[in-house]
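Researcher: Let's continue the batch. This sequence belongs to DUF397 domain-containing protein, and it's 109 residues. Same format as the previous ones, please.
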Amino acid sequence: MSDIPPDLTWERAAPPDATGPGPWIELAFGEGDDGEAPVYIRETSDPENVVTTNRRKWDAFVLGVQAGEFDHFVEGVEDATDTTAAETTNTTAPEINGIGPDTPDTPDA
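Model: Same format as before. Here are the structure tokens for DUF397 domain-containing protein:
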């Protein structure tokens, strides 16, 4: 944990109407704008356990999620409003902290 900067700004990845303590995933972006800049990931229920990756890998992951590359992991999972996957598909996924299809430094995944 000593390599994790103490002054990170953690952003919770939860629906806007989410209530309660989670657990939720939180992200923090380290200093730097290049592909090797650190990205920190943790779960709210275990904030001392932090996974570190870099911006290039994070961008590739986000693009994969937006492209539906991981949809098979949630097949058959119903959300709280009992909607179908076709109703919840977001073809114009929002940018996440400046990461998205319109980000100029996004790598080809």
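Researcher: Any comment?
Model: Confidence is low (pLDDT under 50) at residues 80-109.
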